[in-house]
Amino acid sequence: MNAPDRYERFVVPEGTKKVSYERDTKIINAASFTIEREDHTVGNILRMQLHKDPNVLFAGYKLPHPLQYKILVRVHTTSQSSPMQAYNQAINDLDKELNHLKRVFEGEMTKHPREY
Amino acid sequence: MEGVSYQRFPKVKIRELKDDYLKFELRETDASMANALRRVMLAEVPTIAIDLVEIEGNSSVLNDEFLAHRLGLIPLTSDRAMVMRFSRDCDACDGDGQCEFCSVEFHLHVRCDSDQTLDVTSHDLVSSDPSVVPVDVQRADSVGYDTSEQRGIIIVKLRRGQELRLRAIARKGIGKDHAKWSPAATVTFMYEPEIHINEDMMETLSLEEKREWIESSPTKVFGLDPNTQQVIVIDAEAYTYDDEVIKKADSMGKSGLVEIYAKEDSFIFTVESTGAIKASQLFINAIEVLKQKLDAVRLSEDTEEADDQFGELGAHMRGG
Ligand SMILES: [Zn+2]
């Protein structure tokens, strides 16, 4: 009767930002990103991609609570970079990796005969 | 703003490709990517499923909501789903009408007038869109069944005088919302095992000991070469990372007889589709959906600009 709508798990409510950014007040080049309505799927690939960046000193994500449909991504970089730059770079690299993956998979499909 | 790219270039090798089954190797990427793709295939690749049922008449033995639930679970051919709209953000309708952008209408009217029980199946559903119809089960799996008798997915059985009449609206949705929208029956991946047998130590075992050691594995990973009597790896992928052969070697006083590693950048994927979309299309759609998700988590320009001012301030503070 008063159950929340199922789509609340994955639809960003009106007036809410998908991603918000908060700079750390004490440490320079450290920040956290709050991503609304995302979970381990995006959190973990972002974290792992950030780890590939040598300017990233720390990258981690957490899902604070299973009923709060958001994740927190925390990034700490060297002075050569910034959390925002590292974050954008990670997304671009993941996007390019997926483009590549799609291309090679479709290439494999044309090579592969249909089995029955 | 430009940084160096740390992009990976994964490799794919398809082993088996059928309409509803796909097995392939994914290499040169990490577990986070493999797992993200698996999770997206299970819960975020859209399909079409019955979501709203208006019962016009039901004298069957099953109650209305039971039938509505069963109808929802019937897989519908969903090649259109990627380009369709979700009802909740369709502006062409109120979300509950017959709108070609976000919904497909079905009708069902069956009445039993004989003494034989009548099966109401998914074949009795009449679709308003020829591209969105119940999945044809018999084509996918006709072996061992009398194809003339076994048709479609049974919804309910009727006896003489019973009747079922309804109207149903199918909508686009994702498995995260309700499992009826999941296009995947199963999606799994495993690390490719790398097995090294210490051949010198293996030769110190008698034939009987070799057999005993081979038998200690719960799955058939190792075997004996019939000619040379040497222990060989028959099927590395049958290994379930159970450690039994390692424990057995230890108990025989032969520690280090075999070493098994999981190759952390090589995965073997198995994808089984419900039939709503082809297994290969399911993987392609998962890549597309994951790309869209990543695109959605990009920082908006106003956020970046707001920080740029801060950034200069920060640079001053750092003495830059
Ligand atoms: Zn609509």
UniProtKB/TrEMBL annotation, chain A:
Belongs to the archaeal Rpo11/eukaryotic RPB11/RPC19 RNA polymerase subunit family. Keywords: DNA-directed RNA polymerase, Nucleus, Transcription. PROSITE patterns: RNA_POL_L_13KD. One of its GO terms (cellular component) is RNA polymerase II, core complex. It comes from Protea cynaroides. InterPro entries: RBP11, RBP11-like, RBP11-like_dimer, RNA_pol_Rpb11_13-16kDa_CS, Rpo11-like. Gene3D superfamilies: RNA polymerase, RBP11-like subunit (3.30.1360.10). The keyword Iron does not apply. One of its GO terms (biological process) is transcription by RNA polymerase II. This is DNA-directed RNA polymerase RBP11-like dimerisation domain-containing protein. Residues 31-103 form the DNA-directed RNA polymerase RBP11-like dimerisation domain.
Automatic annotation (TrEMBL), chain B:
It is found in: Nucleus. It comes from the Eukaryota. Residues 21-300 form the DNA-directed RNA polymerase RpoA/D/Rpb3-type domain. InterPro entries: DNA-dir_RNA_pol_30-40kDasu_CS, DNA-dir_RNA_pol_insert, DNA-dir_RNA_pol_RpoA/D/Rpb3, RBP11-like, RNAP_Rpo3/Rpb3/RPAC1, RNApol_insert_sf, Rpo3/RPB3_RNA_Pol_subunit. SUPFAM superfamilies: Insert subdomain of RNA polymerase alpha subunit (SSF56553), RBP11-like subunits of RNA polymerase (SSF55257). One of its GO terms (cellular component) is RNA polymerase V complex. Belongs to the archaeal Rpo3/eukaryotic RPB3 RNA polymerase subunit family. HAMAP family: RNApol_arch_Rpo3 (MF_00320). This is DNA-directed RNA polymerase RpoA/D/Rpb3-type domain-containing protein.
